[in-house]
Amino acid sequence: MAGDDTTQLRLSSSARSSDARTIIALTSATTYRGFTNQVQSRQRSVFVNMQAGQRYYIEVLTQNASGDAHVSVAWEIPAGQGRVYESARPIEGKFLSPYVVDASVSVPASVSTQPGTRIDVPVTIRHTGADVVSQGILETSLPAGFRLPQNSQGWRSGYRYLRIIAQSEAGARGPWAAIAEVTALTTRGAAIPTSAWRVAHVSSEATQCDSGAARHAFDGDTATYWHTDYCAHTPTFPHTLTIDMGAWHPLTGLIYTPRSAMQNGNIGAYRIQVSVDGQHWVNAASGTFLDDGSAQRAPITLATPLVRVLATPIQSAVSHTVILPLIVPSQTGRAPLTVEVRALYDRSVQPWSDGALGNNRRVVTIQVQH
C-alpha cells in the first residue's frame, strides 16, 4: 500500500466486514504509488492466500494532514494459467464492487385514528445484506402538531452530528480558518452542553507550531482555539470541523465566536451541515460572518427528525419491529397525512432513484376521522 499521509488496509477472509483485520498500517507518507519507498517494510503485508472466485471484504482508511492526498493498493499476481508473475500491480476496478448494506422497512399502508388520541404505528426493519450490522437507525419526521408521548418507546428527536465548513477568510488575509468557540443552540435558544462532544473529523489543525487543536473549538474557553494547519503545510479552503455531540438534539442555531486576540482565520463564507448518523448529511445553514471579532449566530430552521437507534447487532435476514407512538393533535385538517420512515445503517445504504421509494423507505398514511 502507498498513501499520504496516514493509511490503513483491512482485509477479511470472507465477504463479511466483521471478519476484517488490519494487515498494513502506515503512519508516514509515501509518493504516489510508491510501493517501494523508504517505508517498504511497513508497506507490505504478510503473505495472504486469496482464492480465485471467492469474495473478500477489503477496506482502506486514509487521513490527510495537509497538501496532496492519495492512496493505492497493489497485489502480487502469481504465475499460472497463462499469466506471468506480476509484482506490486494496483488492484483494478474490474476486481472490485461497492460494499453495500441493504435495509428493508415495512409499515402499515394506512391507519385510522381520532383527533386528540394516541396511535401506535409498528415499524419493521429487516436486514437483507449478507453482513452483520452493528447499529441501525430509523428516521422520520412528524406532521405539524403531532408529537411523541412521554413514553416515547426509545424514539428521540434531533441531530447528533454537526459539521462546520469554512469556505473563505473574512478579511481575505490568507487560507486559514479559526474558531475560538462554537455553541450549538437547541429549543428556545438554550446552549447544548459540550461535555459529551468529541471531534469526529477535522480537515487540519495547527498542533506542531501552535496550540490549535480542534478540540479547543468547544472547550468552553474563548482564549483557546482551533486553527487550521499552517506549520508544515497550509491547506486551502474549504476547511471542515465535524463534531459528534454524543446525543441527539433539536437544533435551532449555532453561535460562532472568533479569536479575540487576532483576526487571522476569522471565518467569512460558511456552510453548516447536520446528520443523525454521521454519514447522511443535510445542509442546515449558510451565509457570511462579519470580520468584526464578535460572536455571531447562524440560525437553523430545519424540521427536527425523530430517530430510533437499534443498538444491538442486526443479523442478516433477521427482522426487528419497534413501535412509533404518536399523539394526534386535537385540531387537524381532513386531508390524509403521511409519515415516511427511513432506515440508516452504520455503512452505506442501497441507493434509490430520485423521487422513488427504495426498500429502506416506506410511507404510512394517517387518516384522522372527524
Proportion of β residues?
35-45%
What would the CATH topology of the largest domain be? Answer: Jelly Rolls
Residue-averaged pLDDT: 86
CATH homologous superfamily designation of the largest domain = Galactose-binding domain-like
In whole angstroms, the N-to-C terminal distance is 66 Å
Main beta-sheet annotation: 6 strands, mixed
Helical residue percent? Answer: under 10%
- Give the ordered list of helices and strands: EEEHEEEEEEEEEEEEEEEEEEEEEEE
Give unreliable regions as ranges.
Answer: 346-357
Which CATH first-tier class of the largest domain would you pick?
Answer: Mainly Beta
Please compute the radius of gyration using only Cα atoms. Answer: 25 Å
Number of helices: 1
Number of strands: 26
- Coarse morphology: flat
Structural class: mainly beta
Tell me the domain tally.
Answer: 3
Give the spatial strand order of the biggest sheet.
9-26-25-11-23-12
CATH architecture of the largest domain: Sandwich
